[in-house]
Amino acid sequence: RATLVDDEEGGVLFVSAPPSSSSSGFGHSSLERQRQRLPVFKYRDAILYLVENHATTIIVGETGSGKTTQIPQYLKEAGWAEGGRVVACTQPRRLAVQSVASRVAEEMGVKIGEEVGYTIRFEDQTNPSVTVIKFLTDGVLIREMMDDPLLTKYSVIMVDEAHERSLSTDMLLGLLKKIQRRRPELRIIISSATIEAKSMSTFFQARKKDLLHAAEDCVPSHLPAILSVEGKGYTVEIHYVEEPVPDYLQAAVHTVLSINDKEPAGDILVFLTGQDDIDAAVKLLREDTQDDRRRTSGLLVLPLYSGLSRDDQGLVFAPTPKGKRKVVISTNIAETSLTLEGVVYVVDSGFSKQRFYNPMAIEEDGFGERGGRRRGKEEEKEEKRRNHTYSQQHTMGDGEISDIESLVVTPISKASARQRAGRAGRIRPGKCFRLYTEEYFLKEMPTEGIPEMQRSNLVSCVIQLKALGIDNILGFDWLASPPPEAMVRALEVLYSLGILDEDAKLTSPIGYQVAEIPLDPMISKMILSACNFGCSEEIITIAAVLSVQSIWVSMWGAQKEFDEVKLHFAAAEGDHITYLNVYKGFLNSGKSSQWCYKNYLNYQAMKKVVDVRDQLSRLLRRLGLALKSCEKDTQAFILLFTCPLTILRKAIIAGFFANSCHLEEYSHNGLYKTVRSSEEVYIHPSSVLFRVNPKWVVYHSLVSTNKHYMRNVIAIDPSWLIEAAPHFYQLRAPNLAPC
Ligand code: ADP
Ligand code: MG
């Protein structure tokens, strides 16, 4: 057994001095040797000792030290997965769940979905009778609590990547703390790359009297233990640009080419922000290969973002072929969630895409300002200035847009920049090329990121907590409290959707049904309304398309061809109806990959749409709701005296009425303003209504780069808004008149 130095300081137990080598009876295959070389291996006994004796163990260790892939295996080897119990490990990101689960299955020599399985939304690769190690997103684990509030099948729950502070991770930590009081035998491990271990630990200090039902001899220590795993990381030389770069995408491409020209062998990892700019960079680099064989021959350029097919993920992790240099262009998923072997050079754009939400009340419409803003005006101005001078072309990051959540390209924090650089020092000393100035890094880059909780729309969070019986959401035990104004906003939206009643309780049946559907509440509401309108068959297809990232393949640099192809499917009503045409075409083609290729459609995404749609139709049947088609079912048509395309749009509006916008009267450049807060927005170039610019539209989501763009847009008649949500529109826009 380990010799541990217990140093009780302010109620926190620190552990130092790891025990020497472990005595587990491993064989010596190459994978097992790799496992034993990981830094975490030296701590195997210490970890097992702590987990046995402490209700909560916090493990801090550098990325790549083996926390995610090894600890669940150690727990299983030590018997935590016997007697029908399961070891769970949560991740904030779906792609990370799939990737680490396959790695662990490979290390254990089992088929994925058997002893080692994973569950992400709409994809369950587990077998309840044999799965003993289960990887899942933190969101899925919260959903599991609806059926099993105490998560009784799990013996140990490892909440991984806690430093990311995703909204679901924060919720999960609060919920687990509650469960722990009722289940003293449950063990929690919180692990992360960097963490404020002490504040986590204080949060998890259970009071002895809370551990009610435990027999005296099995009470684990109520003090959380903290273990720090020392990794060996090599030094990384940091290079900055001398002047701010005007376009980080071009700069990233040039930097990769120049590394390839000047630096010795070693793979390159590039951090950009999302599918759009990653696909663009991949294309530029691959084109360059064709233009100039000498410079880029030998470059193997691969993208890495969520939504990538299994095969493409496999390529990223496969060893680099001899004589080649791999260039992986990634979102911040490769910052700490995934480790790529062989990386020696990192190119850091300094940006990532983040959710951003500013719940500022709308002043013009009589709601007034509801108290404290998250940041002062001055700070915001300062940040705006910085972003502007720093990179004019690709940055927004100013968070000025209010009451609407959007995905924003945002400057990263120093903590992230350090993590990114660290990825270059895994196998030998490496180099990190930062596409920003040293002065910017030292003086202007924020030290830490803002937890997602503080920059998200809380609608989904509120509804889930309500469904779990937590009514006083502000009084919930949060690791850090969410902004009260965001909470109030969420309650208002849910009330206007008819999901909460006047006492802020879930309505029956709508509220409870919405909570059962694992989608954004606006989409769920749209589906439920479609059941009343008699068009649920069509609407679940639309919901399925909206829930995959994008069904189109990258149109970067090929707008004209893309526009032409889209014309085959385009519906004057907008994108949602266009998706119905695409889906029909896909089915008619016999779900052909060739057909997708010809039509600029992502085959994997289309297969996923079919799969998600199937699951939604099963879910509706389980909820006892009718599946009807407004095209086929003439009864609905006659009943409503309306054409099917109008019925469909009304069902969409029943969920998305709050996202309405009107075209500015004298606008020649397609400027719209949102009805609820008069924000300036434009139709995204990927929309079929781009350049069509109907007078009134409703959108599904916003993305922001240098402007705010609406994605997935339909044209509407404004009278439908008042019809769908009279209370909402009377308050916000009393003069809203039909055109
Ligand atoms: P941590 O969670 O501490 O960041 P991991 O357990 O994810 O570390 O990774 C440990 C090791 O396993 C790393 O060296 C990494 O390269 C390797 N590894 C993880 N996932 C994969 C994968 N899908 N394919 C190949 N190697 C992997
Ligand atoms: Mg990990």
UniProtKB/TrEMBL annotation:
Q: Give the source species.
A: Musa troglodytarum
The UniProt record lists the EC number as 3.6.4.13
- Tell me the ranges covered by the Helicase ATP-binding domain, including all copies: 48-213
The transmembrane segments are none
Single GO MF descriptor: hydrolase activity
Q: What is this protein called?
A: RNA helicase
Query: Mind telling me which InterPro entries this protein's record contains?
Result: DEAD-box_helicase_OB_fold, DEAD/DEAH_box_helicase_dom, DNA/RNA_helicase_DEAH_CS, HA2_WH, Helicase-assoc_dom, Helicase_ATP-bd, Helicase_C-like, P-loop_NTPase
Q: Top EC class per UniProt?
A: hydrolase
- A Pfam family this chain is assigned to: WHD_HA2
Q: Which UniProt keywords apply?
A: ATP-binding, Helicase, Hydrolase, Nucleotide-binding
- What segment(s) does the record annotate as region Disordered? 364-397
Residue ranges under compositional bias (Basic and acidic residues)?
Answer: 367-385
| Signal peptide start and end residues | none
The Helicase C-terminal domain covers which part of the protein?
Answer: 248-469
